[in-house]
Amino acid sequence: MPMATPGKTNAGGGTRASRRLAWIWALALSSLFGCQSPGADLHLAPFYTRVARAGGGVDTEALGGLYRHVVAPEEADRYRSELTVGPLLSFDRNGPGQWKSRFLVPLGSARRSGREAASSLIPLYSWSRQEQADGKLESNLITSIGLVLQHHEERGRNFGWFPFYGDLEDLLTFDRIHWILWPLYVGTRRGENRSHNLFYPIFHRSKGGRQNGWRVWPLAGRTRRDESYDRRFFLWPFFHYQDNLLGTRRAERIWMVWPLLGRTRRGTYRATTFLWPFFGFAYDRGGDFWAVDAPFFLVRLQRGPGEVERTRFWPLASTHRADGLQTKNFLWPIFHWRKEEGGENGRRRSFFAIPVWQSWNREHPETGKKSSWRKLFPLFQHERDGDYARGSFPTLDPFWRNRLIDRHYAWMWKLWEWERRGNVRRQRSLLGLWRREKDGFEDRRSLAGLWAARDYAQNGRRIRERSLLFGLLRWRVTQGEGFDMLPVAFPGPGWPEERAGSELRDPRPSPPDE
């Protein structure tokens, strides 16, 4: 009997065994990865998560929340889309031709609504396109190097490069502005009035319409507007003389020899200033009004019926009352109380202890709808607006309530966040490791890869489904029917994108999300 060549048969057998093993692994992996339906829930946080949102829509995130894309129903068949990539970019689409974006937050922004659009990146440029009163579109570009470009559909283009040359329309408060080697020459037009300046602000002349004026600064100058005012100065800033509110019953006259003495007279009102800004006194003989500055801004006492009332000893303490508004400050800017009655904010109460505590309560004047805000820096923040509420901890943003910072940066530090609107509730932990989406039809909870639960109702029966170990082990318990195994849905949990449509009733009270 011939001897077998060492290794030959074993090698062939080993090759065949390796091929069989490879085919087995290929089939196994194919079956595992192919058993989760497209669009089904996938929770592999912090790497990738895709979940069906309570109330409709889909929430997708990756890299612990650096990337997040939310698609949610808004009206009928209309959906809104919100995409966020940390502080780099956000893009919101609210309908056809309507979107807004932020980039390099908080420096850059862009938006579009119909034919109008705008974009800016501080401090590099600002651009806008808007529809004018004549129905034509006009665009404006202003850059940090002083370049200004304008384009109008009918009037054409205008150009400016500060300080060399410019000829522009509707800029700032002017109908037209023109300059050559600013401040050598600057010309402006506002309505019928035209002005010319040489070596601005030294030589000035304006005329036309109801206003005329001249200036040789700082020697002398005068500006007059028909039935409105007449203002003059000499050796600026020392000598000033003004007649204001001409042709009215409240005509006002002001003169000042700065900083020694100044005087204001308007009807029965008189005001006197000594050594400005140190001492000032005002009174109204007909209205029982008086005010004292000693010195101005630091100390102010003001009283009078129907007038603003102030008591200020800055920065120690101050109070203010006027037209339904009351404020109190202590150790400015740390402690601040504010009370409002009426106006756009309705009834509102606020208290701030900067930067540690912020709070306010508001009631809408017409609907009676109530809202509130609380922030204890750096521990937590809480917001309520009608049936909507949300909260999170910690909160490392010391600024005033700001959705911009909260959206683009807070994913890095929030250990826990939640929100509720009606019967819709959501929960999320740091990096998205825990997620919950609950509404009146279904309750889904998941701990990334390890455990997931889905509770819902069908045909009047309560159903509980569970998933373990990336969807490798799944089962269902149906009320009145018992236990069933579910197919593998690697990498899990594999709950369908379409949420249940039957109302879910739980006889046990749910613990509060807050």
Describe this structure in words.
With 514 residues, the protein is mostly beta strands. It is built from two helices and 45 strands. The chain is elongated, with a radius of gyration of 35 Å. The termini are far apart.
List keywords for this structure.
514 residues; mainly beta; 45-stranded antiparallel beta sheet; 45 strands; elongated; disordered C terminus
- Backbone shape: elongated
Biggest beta sheet attributes: 45 strands, antiparallel
Helices, by number, come to: 2
Mean pLDDT: 87
Q: Terminal Cα separation, in Å? A: 84 Å
Which range best describes the helical content: under 10%, 10-25%, 25-40%, 40-55%, 55-70% or over 70%? under 10%
Parts with pLDDT < 50 across at least 5 consecutive residues? 1-15, 21-34, 507-514
Radius of gyration over all CA atoms, rounded: 35 Å
* Total beta strand runs: 45
Structural class, judged by helices and strands? mainly beta
Strand content: over 45%
